[in-house]
Amino acid sequence: MDKQLPRLAPDRLPALAAHLSPLPWVEPRIGIVHLGLGNFHRAHQAMYTEDAMLAAGGDWGICGVSLRRPDTRDALAPQGGLYSVLIRDADGERVRVVRALRRMLVATQEQDAVLDALRDPHVRIVTLTVTEKGYCLDPRTGGLDIAHPLVARDLRNPDHPQSVPGYLVAGLRARRDHPYTVLSCDNLAHNGAALRRVVLDYARALDASLADWIERSVAFPSTMVDRIVPATTDADREAAAAALGCVDAWPVPAESFRQWVIEDRFPAGRPAWEHAGALLVEDVTPYETAKLRMLNGIHSTLAYLALLADIETVDRAVAQADLHALVHRMMSEDIAPTLTVPASFDRARYRDDLLARFANPTLKHRCMQIAMDGSQKLPPRLLGTAADRLRDGHAVDRLALGIAAWMRFLSGRSESGAALELNDPMADRLRALAAPGAEGLVDRLLSVAEIFPPELAADARFAAALRRACDALARDGALTTARRYAAL
Ligand code: CS2
Hints:
This protein has 21 helices and 13 strands. By secondary structure, the chain is α/β, with parallel strands linked by helices. It folds into 2 domains: 10-282, Rossmann fold (3-Layer(aba) Sandwich); 285-486, N-(1-d-carboxylethyl)-l-norvaline Dehydrogenase, domain 2, CATH 1.10.1040. A 5-stranded parallel β-sheet has the order 5-2-1-6-9, with helices on both faces. It has a 3-stranded mixed β-sheet with strand order 4-3-11, with helices on both faces. Strands 10-12-13 form a 3-stranded mixed β-sheet, covered by helices on one side. The termini are far apart. It binds D-mannonic acid.
């Protein structure tokens, strides 16, 4: 990268008009605290919020909080919170500079500032992208995992929290007369309701009257969020510098497609997100299930099978004829029929649009990024679909193949012997369960109750389909098996 280039900063904005919205920008006060300041937030909610402010005004500047790592703050602080989004499609790239992020904090280093931000009466919404594991959920009960190390610690030190429920409740406790709305933007089933439950469980363990008040007074709308946002590479930094004529230490690559469906329950007000293209609805469930099962379920299936076959990116995976045939058939016949969607929702069109998005050759979305945290991702993405299919007496072979590919991925080696890194909050346990090898692998993993609900784990048809798929993967490899399963 050219070291002579200046840094992206507010004083560069006049020279960057081509990368800004032409609408007049009025510097907003902070109205939103966001927990989990990753690439996804910066390319999704932050852009929607900026577009809503540009179209309709309002003080909805964002204070972005990283719960642990300082790297995003350290990259963006010298830039006054400015950053660029590299919007990429098959036909080219647009670069947009985003101004909505007004402040960056790191919870592990600036706890008081984070708590002050949460208690600021001007803040009316707290949004979250903390990934599935950030919710401290006990999947067996759907409530808070009270034994989670961060939760157990926070319940002893509620004024100095470290967990997500700990922060949310520490903020709410101080604002009994003007609560904020809590908006989950993670890929969890019923994300708002799930978050409400863990927050209530946590609050109840501290103080029953606080929990009762939260139950009555705090809104937790559910949302469906969608945009493919890969991790940033040095090539992205170079592309940003070339387009902007200045250095952005942490640009975000993203596809042009974006979607946000939000339950419209914001007692303390909200940005006019509908002006930015968001859909405000009463019930997000049909959209959320369609997206989790069709997009994310297929993403995970492709990622594990492709990694076994030494294919690194999603576009290359979906360009492989056998994998394409498999996922096309899965979406059409195994997943789409389980969706309860309005009559206007065209399942075939949704499938085709997703396949076209996956094929975007400019994104270089790495399968490894999708493969991480499989223990958290499989249940909402694939297991619910499998349970529904079994309940209706249908075969689950293709769904089982995706899950079996994850089981084989846990062994840590691709078919050519390349190392596959396991990045998962349950990594140690999963690695130990995978270590004894193929014999008995399915049964050992099915016994993990945090992943497989008991009814599904006990279903002989499911276990048999998993065993067949694991055997086929071991015998014939991922691509040959995909071809055969596409034709079943
Ligand atoms: C992906 C998602 O990393 C993953 O697991 O499946 O991040 C996916 O790209 C987004 O949900 C798309 O909206």
